[in-house]
Amino acid sequence: MPRYMVERTFPDGLHVPTDGEGAAALLNVVEINAGSGVTWVHSYVTPDKKKTFCVYDGPNPEAIREVATRNSVPVDEITEVRVLDPYFYH
């Protein structure tokens, strides 16, 4: 399955509570994604919480955009990526 890097901008910052409410919100995202064959692998967040770089597995960019809309999160750019492992050459 293709892997994608999804860049997002949150002008007011991304604030996910570190409690049960936040856990439930993230689980809801995972469940919505699964309905379209999309898997959220992990994300990187800038220190100011205004940008995220999220790694997803999914069938195509359209599926990634669809779940983003259903999850009410922005999408700036979707780029198909592959792993480059620096230790592969040793």
Please report the first level of CATH classification, the CATH class: Alpha Beta
What is the strand arrangement across the widest sheet? 2-3-1-4
Helical segment count: 2
Query: What is the rounded Rg?
Result: 14 Å
Which structural class is indicated by helix and strand composition? alpha+beta
The run of helices and strands is EHEEHE
What is the residue-averaged pLDDT? Answer: 96
What is the rounded distance between the termini? 27 Å
Architecture per CATH nomenclature, i.e. the level-2 architecture: 2-Layer Sandwich
Structure summary, number of beta strands:
4
> What share of residues are in beta strands?
25-35%
Assign an overall shape: globular
State the domain count: 1
Low-pLDDT residue intervals, each spanning 5 or more residues: none
- CATH superfamily caption: ORF SCO4226, nickel-binding ferredoxin-like monomer
CATH fold-level label? Alpha-Beta Plaits
The portion of residues assigned to helices is: 25-40%
For the largest beta-sheet, the strand count, sense and barrel status come to:
4 strands, antiparallel
Organism: Sphingomonas brevis
InterPro entries: SCO4226, SCO4226-like
Protein name: DUF4242 domain-containing protein
Pfam family, one: SCO4226-like
